[in-house]
Amino acid sequence: MSTPTTNPASCPATQHRLSNLPSQQGLPSGALDTLQRNVKPFTGKPPGPTWESWKTSLESTIRDYYPQMSTGAQFRLTIALLQDDIRDLVIKAGKDTMENFEQFMKATYPVSLWADYYDTALHSGTLFKGQNIHVACTIATDAAWQLGGTSHWCTQVTKAMLAEYHANLEQAPHALWDFAEYTAGKMVECFTAITQAVLASQARQAAIRTAPGRGPSSQETRGLPTGGTKDSNPPSTDAIVAAVLVAMKVETPVANSSNRGRARCQKDRQAKEIADLRAENERLQQAANQQPGKA
Predict the structure, then answer these.
(1) Last residue in a domain, options 80, 108, 136
(2) Which residues form the domain of 217?
(3) Do 283 and 255 lie in a common domain?
(4) Is 151 helix (H, G, I), strand (E, B) or coil?
(5) Within this chain, do residues 85 and 142 fall inside the same structural domain, yes or no?
(6) Integer Cα distance of 83 and 89 in angstroms
(7) Are 243 and 206 in contact (CB under 8 A)?
(8) Measured distance CA(120)–CA(233) in Å, rounded
(9) Is residue 222 part of a domain?
């Protein structure tokens, strides 16, 4: 039996206040716990998602799990999934009603906050510090769009990513640097190429470090020899793939969504990257075998 809904316009605003409603009233059993496992609380600040991105992610997750949920129930869950200090601010300001909530959130957390943050991080060189390549791609995409999505900003963000991961890109195709400008339409293709090159480099170094009789070199720093020399005897394809799988076991946060659809896309992308790495390593092995002096 479906839960009856009430038209917000037909009742006084006080009847819509979250503070006057039991937190689980009219909600499917376990709904709050389910959504808390799939959607991180809205933090109201970068590098977390913008208000619009977070709300879209939440609505998509609700549709996945509870396609028949009423508007009123969705509203209560939205309030419940805000970070504690933000929820307190909303309630104290008297904006926890369907009539006032949305406008208050847009005014309090405008997208300009994210644009300013990314602009500062980009120019200070801290945009990708300490991030793995998958998280960096998510940040780069969000940053480019929040800064306007123009070719200028797409180019600046991409250059910053290349600079951050240059140590892993010594054997990458020269085409990664051969450009006049990047555009929003080419970002996904470019970031995919950078990701594959970085993972291939990290996997090669991991395979070298774990190969029998080959301990870590005293010259290595963060997995890269300081001399920049190339290994003339690439590790086996199986070693490369095994190292990549180990690297991919680390859970990759997603800025704007953690729903099941995106998880499937990530799994498909990782499978493609493994296949590409197999092909790339086989090419390297063939090239090494064809060098003068090789039997």
Answers:
(1) 108
(2) 112-289
(3) yes
(4) helix
(5) no
(6) 10
(7) yes
(8) 43
(9) yes
Show which of 59, 77, 108 is a domain's final residue.
Answer: 108
pLDDT digits (tens, 9 = 90+) for 33-74: 999 999 999 999 988 899 999 999 999 999 999 998 888 899
Q: Which of 65, 63, 73, 98 lies closest to 2 in space, CA to CA?
A: 73
Residues 79 and 220 reside in one and the same domain: no
Residue 295 lies in a domain: no
What's the token pair of residue 103? Answer: 């406008």
249: exposed, middle or buried (Cβ count in 10 Å: 0-12, 13-18, 19+): exposed
- Is residue 130 domain-shared with residue 191, that is, in the same domain? yes
Indicate whether 10 belongs to any domain: no
pLDDT tens digits for 65-104?
999 888 889 999 999 999 999 999 999 999 989 889 999 9
Cα 111 from chain centre: 18
Distance, CA of 177 to CA of 159 (rounded, Å):
9
Output the CA torsion 72→77→78→83 (10° steps): 150
149 & 100 share domain: no
Number of domains in the chain: 2
Confidence of residue 289 (pLDDT cuts 50, 70, 90): low
User: What one-character-per-residue DSSP string does 193-241 give?
Assistant: HHHHHHHHHHHHHHHHHHSTT----TTEETTEETT-PPPSSPPPHHHHH
Burial of residue 287 (CB within 10 Å: 0-12, 13-18, 19+) is: exposed
Nearest to 36 by CA among 20, 19, 23, 21: 23
> SS3 for 100-133, per residue?
CHHHHHHHHCCCHHHHHHHHHHHHHCCCCCCCCH
Residues 131 and 251 in one domain: yes
For 129-169, where are the alpha helices, taking DSSP H only? 133-146, 151-164
